[in-house]
Every structure is written in C-alpha cells, then in structure tokens.
Amino acid sequence: MTAQHPAPRPAQPSGGNKILVVLLVPLFMSLMSVSVVNVALPAIEGGLNASSADLQWVLAGYALSFGVVLVAAGRAGDLWGRKPIFIAGILLFTVGSLASGLAVDPLMLNLSRVVTGLGSGLLNPQIIGIIQNVFHGRARGRAYGLFGTVVGLGVAIGPTLGGVILGALGPEWGWRTTFLINVPFGVLSAVLAAAWLRPPARVRSEEARRSLGALDPVGAVLLAAAVVCLMVPFILPGTWLLLAAAAVLLAAWWWWEQRMKARFPATGRAPMVDPALFRIPSFSYSTVATAFLLGAMPGLWAVQAIVTQQGLGYSALAAGMTSLPTALAVMVLSPWIGSHVHRRGPQFVVAGAVLALGAVALGMVAFHQIALGDWPFWTLALCLFPFGPAQALLMTSSQVLTMHEVPPRAAGAAGGVSQTAQRVLTATGLAAVTGAFYASLAASGTGGRTGDATGGAGGAAADAAAVAVSYGDAADTALLVVMGLLAVTLVAGVLDYIRRYRGGTLVLED
Q1: What CA–CA distance (Å, rounded) separates 388 from 200?
Q2: Tens digit of pLDDT for each residue in 197-232?
Q3: Could you report how far apart the first and last alpha carbons of the chain are, in Å?
Q4: What's the rounded Cα separation, in Å, for the pair 478 and 472?
Q5: Which whole number is the average pLDDT over 231-257?
Q6: How many domains does the chain have?
C-alpha cells in the first residue's frame, strides 16, 4: 500500500488577487496619512488657529498610537484570528479620519488622530500575517513586492496628493479632505474584507481559550510603555530622561518574556513575543535593514520639501512632484523584484543600499548646485530618482527575508515587532535629520528668513540667493545624517549576505 502524501499547497490561493486588494488598500491609506498631512499643516494652522505644539501633535499623536499597539495587535491576530482584528482596525481608522476631517478645534483633531493611529496599529500587523499564511513560494514574493509598492507609493505620493487637493479645494476644505478622503475607501475596504477574507480558523488550543491572559498583558504594557518612552524624546525635545526609562522598561520586558517562555509548558501561556524570534538571523538582520531605511526616508523627503518651498521659493505641489518619479519607479519595479526575491533577495538588499547611498550623494550635489543657480530645479528629481529603484530593492526584499524563517503561528507578533522598530526609527530618524538641518540653518544665521525687500529689487535678489545657499548647505548637512542611517542598512545587508553565502542558502525555499 503506497504512502499518502499531503497535496502541496498552491502558491497562489483561490481569490488571491481579491485578498491583495483588500489588504493593500488600507495599507496605502494608513501610510499616506503620515505624509499627506505635512503639506496640509499650514492650512490646519490657519483653519483651526492651531499653535506649533498643536501641529506637532497632529503628526506625533498618530505616530505614537500607531507604534504602541503594533506588537500586541499582531499577537492578538495570531491567537484569535486576523480577519476580525483587521476589520476592526479599518473601522477605527475610518472613524478617526472622519472625526479628523470634521474637527472644530485642535484638541478634537489631535484626539481623532490618536484614534486613527490606533486603527492603523491594529490593521497593519494583520496584513503581514495574512500574506505569510495565505501565500507561498513565488506568490508570496509577488505579494510582498506589491506590499513594497504600496509602502513606497503611500510615503511618496502623499505630498503630491496633498498639494493637488489643497490647490483644487482651497485651504479650509483642502486640509479637511486630506482626512475625509479615507472615509469612503475605509468603508468599502471593511465591506470587502468581510466578504473576501477567509474566516479565522476555529481556535482549538487551550492557550487561546484563556482569552486576555493568552495575550500576555504584562508584556504588552511593558513594551508599549517602552515604545512611548523611546519615541517621545524625539517628538518633544527636553524629555531625554525618558530614554533611560525606556532602557529600564525594555530590560524589564525582556526579562518578563524570558520568564513567560520558561514557564510556558507549566502555565500554558506563551509570551507575547517569543525571545527565540530574535535568534532567527534573517529576521534580525532584515528588521534592522528595513527600520534604518525607514529612518532615513522621511527625513530625506522632509528636507527636500522644506528646501524646495522655503529655500528655493517653489510651491508645495512642486515639492511633491519632485518625489513622484521615485514613487513611480517603486510602483513599476517592486512586483518584478518580488517575483525574483526568492533567488536574489540578499543581493537585492546590498544593491539597494548602495544605490540609495549613491542617490543621496547625488542629491547633496544637486541641492548645492541648484542653490548656487548653476543647475535647474528639475535636476533635483533626476538626481534623487535612483532612490526609487533602491527603495524597491530594499523594501521588497527585506520584507520577504524578515518573515522567511518565521513560523506562521508567530507571523503576526513578528510583523508587529518589525513594524514597531520601523515606527521608532521613523520618529528618531526624522528628528535627527531635521534637527541637523535646522541646527545648520541656525548656525548660518538664516533661520526662517525667506528674503527682505527693503534693499530694492537687487537687494531682494541677493538676499534670496543667500537664503537659497544657506538652505542648500543645511540640506547637505542633513543628508549626511541620512547617509549614516543608510550605512547601517548596508552593513546589515552585507552581514546577512555573508552569513547566507557561507551557509550556502542564497536561494530561498518556501
């Protein structure tokens, strides 16, 4: 009698394209909500009579609540099913967007942004977990390729879309629409997710039947508190002592997770994050590579937007259009890279990091030459364009490599850990890059000055040229910090490549 072997899992599941649509539309909305608001801040300031502190929390409240719940949300999806938590996250994000667009004062807006961030934090880890469980082989690479495409577009297209909306609708309805545009897409996404996603498998484990205890609430609270203490000093200067508290809380969280792991056989309760996860080299190296890339990217585009508008005198739309070619490169290349990452993923990470460093170096030259008046403005987009292919290589490959050796049962928690690292590095990288920019600008004596017409036309032109040069020099200083962050990505990629090359595992198997 011949042995019966289980049928191989299909790489592309039935209805796979519908599943990807349901997953990636909310992902795009949640990431676009980070970048689209940058262009709208001046309109929000005028429309709600908001202070600079209020405006700071429009961005910070979203980022903070987004980062705090990621790991716990991923673990909850692993335990109780990702579909209901994903839908709940979409609905919470939609309600927060609606309230933000209808806000009557800064307090209402900032509280609504916190709610929106919580929704993003709930839905994002489920996306990775569902892809990891549903897709296999090359189909998984393609899915993560599309994931990378959406991440790139969400970050890069936000300023362009914000500029278009504000130009078409004016300041008041323009800034409100940057939030309200999420509402119809959110409602539609929730309906389609309910219809197209598979219901969660019936939970059979004793662990999951223990309800909240299985989520490891102590570990969740310790990690959330540590993340808050890590991020706040980079959002609110003068709170640096919180970094010491973050170190203590992280140590306490690690001790608790180790304790939960050691007692698991007896108690039946596993830790929220299995400490063994960090002993998976592909997970650790790729998490570092992706996090430092996302620490560098927002600072690069923030500096570009500031210099374009305040230093060179161009519009917000022009600033957004400068990043559009890189976004298009990400959109075109990511699916192809995703389909080949199973063979060349480690090489793609190294190549992407090198290309990104080259693009930033070209950008430094372009800022300097444009400020001097030697190059036309469009050359900035040309010089920064290689960052698009670099981002496609890095984001797509790192995402696949991060999750490659993670068991499906831990995919949600692992995705939460990886995305928490990304949120923390995004906040700290943005603060470091913009801090270096403004410090250099202050040292030049320019500050926020954009010109003085009291000396006549010739004096105004000379002053505008001096301002442009000061902004260009400050951009060069800031981009050195960007290159430092990207260098960490390169080192992590090289170390992972060497490890795989020595172990003979450059070809990934599902």
Answers
A1: 37
A2: 987 655 545 544 455 666 788 888 898 898 888 878
A3: 30
A4: 10
A5: 87
A6: 1
